[in-house]
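[Q] Does anyone have a clean structure-token version of this?
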Amino acid sequence: MGAVLEGVRLAVIGGDDREIYLIPELQRQGANIIGLGLEKSPLGHSIEHASSFEEVMEKAHALLFPMFGTDERGLVKAKYSNSPIVLNKDVLESIPLGVPLFIGWARPALKAAAQNMDITLVEIVNRDDVAILNSIPSAEGSIQMAMEATNITIHGSQSYVIGLGRTGITLVNMLKGIGAKVTVVARKSADLARAVEMGVKAVSLTELETVISQAEIVFNTAPALVLDRNLLEKMSREAVIIDLASIPGGTDFEYAQMLGIKAQLAPGLPGIVAAKTAGKILAKIYPPIILEYVSPIGKGVR
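[A] Here you go.
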């Protein structure tokens, strides 16, 4: 790609193993990297390390937060940090005018605060290019989790996929390839039609309670409480649920545990099961997005 980011100073804040592969790729494209919360990472002296948000704000043209975003308290995932990193009101107020904040997934409170403070917040997790490419390690990782949690093979299993979005489509194709008996559960008629076209069974969400007892493995991708008490009570106690939806997921996990049903929430799978691939995906996606907001010859929005 060349040095398309020449002269751009990017602050990479926190993160997990994805950042370990993302950062060298950004550097190869000309970016200068300032790390916050990466002091224990294997990157060592290959990047400049900041000790505070104040130092970051003085130097960076753009802020890159992790794909995971923050928890409800504003705590930033930072695997290689010596101390907690919190994205709070004080930090947001310290962001200079024209410095964009890139983040994988932004909580509603963060979106509202950024809008009120006139901060350019760029959420990338729902972009088609990011989501489709990330659906590959997500689907692989969820199948791996199912294999480890069950005492049956995926081949021949009654595998239900709730939701036929970008991750759902990839997951259905993989499960079919392994030989699973796949049922797609969806709300939209277009998604049900697509499931039929893909050669799998299609069930409307409103009809799920009549067939859920047959499910041996359930993969949920819907970002809403789908597997509630009513549906869980109708499920086999030997069934396994792998929930790929964003936190808090689409399952009543406490009730599932009470019933003895294995249910696992699996957000951020790309960074867990395929950090190298996930990091390189971000390295391809980020530069053109960054250049939409930052000029390589100076600080600020174009």
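[Q] Thanks! Anything notable?
[A] Residues 129-267 form a domain with the Rossmann fold fold (CATH 3.40.50.720).
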